[in-house]
Amino acid sequence: AQADELAMLRLNITDYVNQNALQFVTDAKSIEKDWDSYVSGLDNLNLKRYLEMMQQLYDQTLQTLK
Q1: From 13's CA, which of 3, 40, 47, 60 has a CA 20 to 30 Å away?
Q2: 0.85 cut: is pTM over it?
Q3: Phi and psi at residue 29, in whole multiples of 5°?
Q4: Are 50 and 10 in contact (CB under 8 A)?
Q5: Rg (Cα) of the chain, in Å, rounded?
Q6: Which helix (H) or strand (E) holds 60?
Q7: Is residue 1 very low, low, confident or very high in pLDDT (cuts 50, 70, 90)?
């Protein structure tokens, strides 16, 4: 279940970042005007949960290597 959640979060966040990067590069969005909205969108995609899960996996990997 956690792997499915992680995969879904990764897919949604990656798609969002790629779409917005294109819009920022092509000036369809302005970094000055639209950045806060972009960050808010990442929050709405549960970026914090994704980062927590990735940190747990990283920590587990480090423990395994010791």
Answers
A1: 60
A2: yes
A3: -125, 150
A4: yes
A5: 15
A6: helix 47-65
A7: confident
